[in-house]
UniProtKB/TrEMBL annotation:
InterPro entries: Glutaredoxin, Thioredoxin-like_sf. Residues 4-63 form the Glutaredoxin domain. This is Glutaredoxin-like protein NrdH. PROSITE patterns: GLUTAREDOXIN_2.
Amino acid sequence: MRNITVYSKPGCVQCRATARGFAKAGVAIDIIDVSTDPTAAAMLTDWGYLSVPVIVTPDGQHWAGHRPDRITAAARAAAQTHAQLSV
Protein backbone atom coordinates (compact mmCIF):
# COMPACT_ATOMS: atom_id res chain seq x y z
CA MET A 1 0.00 0.00 0.00
CA ARG A 2 1.36 3.43 -0.92
CA ASN A 3 1.67 6.08 1.73
CA ILE A 4 0.27 9.57 1.60
CA THR A 5 2.87 11.99 0.24
CA VAL A 6 3.44 15.43 1.71
CA TYR A 7 5.46 17.83 -0.42
CA SER A 8 7.21 20.19 1.94
CA LYS A 9 10.18 22.51 2.42
CA PRO A 10 12.28 23.54 5.42
CA GLY A 11 10.79 26.13 7.74
CA CYS A 12 7.22 25.56 6.56
CA VAL A 13 4.90 25.85 9.57
CA GLN A 14 1.88 24.44 7.72
CA CYS A 15 4.00 21.51 6.53
CA ARG A 16 5.01 20.63 10.09
CA ALA A 17 1.40 20.96 11.27
CA THR A 18 0.24 18.68 8.47
CA ALA A 19 2.87 16.05 9.28
CA ARG A 20 1.91 16.22 12.97
CA GLY A 21 -1.76 15.79 12.05
CA PHE A 22 -1.06 12.63 10.10
CA ALA A 23 1.22 11.31 12.88
CA LYS A 24 -1.47 11.97 15.48
CA ALA A 25 -3.93 10.03 13.30
CA GLY A 26 -1.44 7.16 13.04
CA VAL A 27 -0.99 7.53 9.28
CA ALA A 28 2.38 6.90 7.66
CA ILE A 29 3.46 9.59 5.23
CA ASP A 30 6.32 10.16 2.84
CA ILE A 31 7.76 13.66 2.95
CA ILE A 32 9.40 15.08 -0.16
CA ASP A 33 11.44 18.27 0.22
CA VAL A 34 10.74 20.34 -2.89
CA SER A 35 13.70 22.62 -2.12
CA THR A 36 16.03 19.71 -2.95
CA ASP A 37 13.88 17.89 -5.53
CA PRO A 38 13.44 20.04 -8.65
CA THR A 39 11.38 17.36 -10.39
CA ALA A 40 8.83 17.36 -7.56
CA ALA A 41 8.80 21.17 -7.47
CA ALA A 42 8.16 21.29 -11.23
CA MET A 43 5.34 18.74 -10.92
CA LEU A 44 3.59 20.85 -8.27
CA THR A 45 3.97 23.95 -10.44
CA ASP A 46 2.51 22.06 -13.40
CA TRP A 47 -0.46 21.14 -11.19
CA GLY A 48 -0.93 24.84 -10.39
CA TYR A 49 0.38 24.82 -6.83
CA LEU A 50 2.49 27.78 -5.76
CA SER A 51 3.02 26.89 -2.10
CA VAL A 52 3.45 23.92 0.19
CA PRO A 53 2.38 21.71 1.76
CA VAL A 54 0.79 19.79 -1.05
CA ILE A 55 -0.68 16.47 -0.01
CA VAL A 56 -1.27 13.57 -2.42
CA THR A 57 -3.25 10.51 -1.36
CA PRO A 58 -2.78 7.00 -2.81
CA ASP A 59 -6.04 7.38 -4.75
CA GLY A 60 -4.73 10.51 -6.50
CA GLN A 61 -6.54 13.22 -4.55
CA HIS A 62 -4.43 16.27 -3.78
CA TRP A 63 -4.74 19.59 -2.00
CA ALA A 64 -2.60 22.41 -0.64
CA GLY A 65 -2.29 23.82 2.84
CA HIS A 66 -2.84 22.51 6.33
CA ARG A 67 -6.37 21.08 6.18
CA PRO A 68 -7.33 19.19 9.36
CA ASP A 69 -10.63 18.15 7.74
CA ARG A 70 -8.83 16.58 4.78
CA ILE A 71 -6.24 14.96 7.06
CA THR A 72 -9.04 13.32 9.05
CA ALA A 73 -10.78 12.11 5.88
CA ALA A 74 -7.53 10.75 4.44
CA ALA A 75 -6.75 9.00 7.74
CA ARG A 76 -10.17 7.33 7.70
CA ALA A 77 -9.69 6.20 4.10
CA ALA A 78 -6.23 4.83 4.91
CA ALA A 79 -7.61 2.91 7.91
CA GLN A 80 -10.40 1.41 5.78
CA THR A 81 -7.94 0.38 3.08
CA HIS A 82 -5.64 -1.17 5.66
CA ALA A 83 -8.56 -3.06 7.23
CA GLN A 84 -9.64 -4.40 3.83
CA LEU A 85 -6.12 -5.56 3.02
CA SER A 86 -5.83 -7.29 6.40
CA VAL A 87 -8.85 -9.52 5.77
